[in-house]
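Hi! If you just cloned this repository, the fastest way to understand the data is to look at a raw example. We've pasted two of them here, unedited. The first protein comes first, obviously.
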Amino acid sequence: MIECVGENVSESRIGERVWCYGAQSYQSFGTAAEYVVVPFHQAVSLPENVSFEQGACLGIPGITAHRAVYIAGDVQGKTVLVKGGGGAVGQCVVALARFADAKVIATVCSEYDEHIAIKAGAHSVSLTDNLTQDQIIESIQDAASGDIHHIIEVAFDANIEIDKELIATGGSIAAYATGNPEPRIPFWPLLFKNVRLFLLGSDDFPTDAKLAAANEINRALKTGWQGFEIGKIIELENITEAHMTEENGFDKGRVILKI
């Protein structure tokens, strides 16, 4: 909720329900606070049908997800593979890619995440836990039943050897995370397929891309996307508990701080 506005911002925005993004980009503090100050365009109107708890989940995951979907161009009619489709960014990617009329395939590591990815809109989900690399490739190829045009990658270092086998000639890979900060890249296999590789850091996305992302996320929320699974709500004064919950591998939805 907007409490006050700065110079050259209309006072009509006071009292507006909003969600925000980028509050911590190159700043000392983020949104784990009762109040936060952001540029006016980073305070995005929250649709009336969407709760503040959902709004708290949207920021970085939503902006990253939109960029990952569209970085290589329009995905309408194309097949998009979403690695980690049950994660924070992953489930938002699934929703936005489905909203963009792509055929959406997701990989997950648990039955719970499978439920999340299907709820977000995945046409098909491959449960990859305990599968060999060859089995993972076969499972995804069966689900795709054709070319995979765009891969959105949550674990670049662990999965690039699989991705190079799956991606179609002329396809693209958008990666937003990696376990190894200096991963090996299979240069020649990717080159011979003319693969485009995009590495995504949300702090430095162009402003117009962030604005487009915010608008598209709101459109999806208004027209059927149910948003994130909320797993646990913790009072702000118990923020240490929230951190411990995340660090201990809590995987049953998003952890929210309540003011």
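Ok, and the second one:
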Amino acid sequence: MSTTLLHVGRAFTPLTELHDAGILIRDGVIETIGPRNSMSLPAGANEVSAAGRIAAPGFLDVHIHGAGGHDVMEGTPDVLQAVSKTIAVHGTTSYVATTVTASPENICIASEGIARYIATQHQATDTRAEILGIHFEGPFISPVRRGVHPLEWLKLPSAELLAKFVAAAGGHARIITIAPELLGAIPCIDAAQKSGMVVGIGHTDATFEQALAAFHQGAHHAIHMYNAMRPFSHRDAGVIGAVLTTPGVTAELIADGVHVEETAMRLLLQAKGAGGVILISDGISATGMPDGTYMLGSFEVTVSGGVCRNAEGKLAGSTLTLDRALRNIVGLGAPLSDALRMLTLNPATLLGIESKKGSLRAGADADIVLLDDALNVTQVWTRGCTN
């Protein structure tokens, strides 16, 4: 792989902003980042001049079901490649493939397919997002707050069933969504942690006390904050109140202006701070596609005006891309460095891979996004590859 020196006007690491910066990429890894005038061009290296651009770490999506007309539960190499290429165009350079509630057999089959793809994806020499693992959203969720997840396949949390999912994932099980009020939730949280998974609470009707019990047990993440959760009120703070007031608990946010209205987004940003929010897409197969009918797992979703709903009219994921989420959050008044952190360092830290992903730093993968002043993506590197 060639050596490239990227010269940009501004670079966000994301915690530090560098002006007139140079980023030296060698063999798919960032070797050096610093002032361009302090760096010399290595022999045989290619210099890319982008003095009018902003460089940021590649975006990391921990909750996405599909894109480009395909759902990750199809689990085939062609499908997963199509998803990965579609979202890379919008700056997402790595993601956690997210399943939806289905029969245990189908969840296992999909997981096995994703695991096989993960084993071979690094052979690619084109620009495509990297799958970092699997997020199991369901079946251990509340029937009261199931959203569009099929009722017939919901299960009480079970360490035994979770073990089957983990085995099918072949070492790539990364996140599990659990409704903590359900019978069996606490043993399942314990089992998930022993398997090295992040435990998120979501699709839940939990009370404030039940949510706190889950946090005490080791859950420390909230799935698509506000959506599919017991509502907050001044006499019943519920799971939302617990998330907003518990330090160390990160909260996902679908910042498309449809799933969460502006004031609620501002409240979350103020309560959790720049380090406590993770922007996600919750994107489905319709992402990057025109309006029409698409699949989410095994059921149909209709997309009109870019908004996804099932036959009952319930929201069913989104068509949001993370570059648009970035622009929306900055549009609320968030500093660019904070908004970028929510797309890069925060999700990488959640997964425990912040030394390799989510930062522009020596030794990290060369996952880099170039943005213009309007925060539109102009070029993307995925592990040193660019088109």
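That's it. A detail worth noticing about the second one: Residues 104-120 form the longest helix (17 residues).
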